[in-house]
What does this fold into?
Amino acid sequence: MKKLRTLLPLSIGLATCFWLQSCNSSPKAANQTATSAQSKLVLTGSSTVAPLATEMAKRYESEHPGVRIDVQSGGSSRGIADARQGVADIGMVSRALKENEKDLQAFAIAKDGVSVILNQANPVQQLSDQQIVEIYTKKITNWQAVGGKDAPITVVNKAEGRSTLELFAHYFKLETKDIKSDVVIGDNEQGIKTVAGNPHAIGYVSIGSAEYGATHGTPIKLLPVEGVAASIANVASEKFPISRPLNLVTKTAPTGLQKDFIEFARSPGVQNIVKQQYFVPATQ
Amino acid sequence: MLNSNTSSQRHSETLLLWLLRGLALISGAILLLILFFLIWEAIPLLQQVGLSRFFTDASWHPASNEFNLAPMLAGTLLLTVASVLIATPLGILSAVFCHYYAPPAIAQPYRRLIELLAGIPSVVYGFWGLVVLVPLINRIHPPGPSLLAGTLILTLIILPTIALVADASLASVPPEYVKGAAALGLGRWAMIRGVVLPAARSGLITGAILETGRAIGETMAVLMVCGNVVQVPHSLFDPVRTLTANIALEMAYAVDNHRAALFVSGLVLMGLIALLVAIAEVLNRGQYD
It folds into this structure.
């Protein structure tokens, strides 16, 4: 009965369908990759890594006709679970592996940081770690207490289970239960829109998305942490304290197409894609 | 039963009868399958912690085994009731206007406009709410994303549903009733209130049920404007999280017990809808007693 519940048979069936389909539509291409015994790759996991992996997959597909790479986002936990169960060929995880996940193999393809963001209209230029902790636990509820205007603070938090939340909470030594928020958001974009629309809001999002937004006219600003400016450059030089690797994970040592794609994703040739997405190439 | 004789004579009718029976069976089976699947996914957790803990736990922290759904149930009910209370009179009055007050040159374009409104995807309303309505509310009373924002957006989303169904049910009121009322010398409003609305009652109730169902089920727009904090709101300006938003926010990241807890949310939603349909059944039946 348990088999009924796993998606394994279904995904194998789907994979076969796609494989057959690709054979039908381009028999030539299928012959070229026939030696790799597989022409479809499934990546699932972190919504932070997914757009990056999608771009890499597009370029890989154009360089290897007949190969199909399917990228599905759904969070780092899903990346771990799917890679473990074999539902996906490669899992995407936007953090370092935990102790109990060391059975998996991780390959960093980029780095990212988490940045605290404020609305541009907010006069506050920096906050100490302690102040941020007190704001997120509602011990400080007015901007006046940290040198801003007399206005209540709108605390923007991420939904439970998101890796950005885990990284943020881990750095500030907060229990996710202790965080008291006014707004709970899903993805980075929603967080940026929320802070951009509210001059009294404080939030935290992936530094890549934040820097992209700030340099493209969204009225937000990134706060420094421990005096280090929140920027891609400082994540690259490992000066910025809240950062994380973006990993591709596999259950066993990668082989065939799997191995080829991971090598491709770590190669200097795709660094311009990583930079386009405001991440930091891991091989630097 | 009445035409069993004729249908046995006519092959095509027998065929149609069985075809319809088959289709009805499939629809029913699909519903049962969904219900079965929900229960199947939720049962491991229900057996482990029991149903009562979903309403008595300290809070909703599924990662640390706290599964209180009550604030989200409250959020769902408050949002639904508030938006239905606003949208229903607006929708019915809009239909009355369309039928009995507007000149034909206005009534027809107005009807098309409402149909257009019904066709706009709810996520568009949600996006507008996030970038326009929420900052506006924030200026009046922070934080902005709130029960109020959700209610207004939901009202917009369900308004066309009730307006169009009310329109259709007013159109189906027999013209003799209207003529009879006119012959009695009733004024236009007296006729509408005393004759037309009672005659269209069943249709209006159906409309109200449909809009309520839409309000309960709406996810994306509500997720974008409600703030999604798990709490029982104390004022219109407090953020709330609905059961649907809860599933949408956390499903991608949920594994094991957390995932099962989301299926319990789904079951509770299903129970709400079933209750709604039962209420509609009772209301509609009362009409003929």
About this structure: The first strand of chain A starts at residue 40 and ends at 45. Residues 113 and 242 of chain A are 6 Å apart (CA to CA).
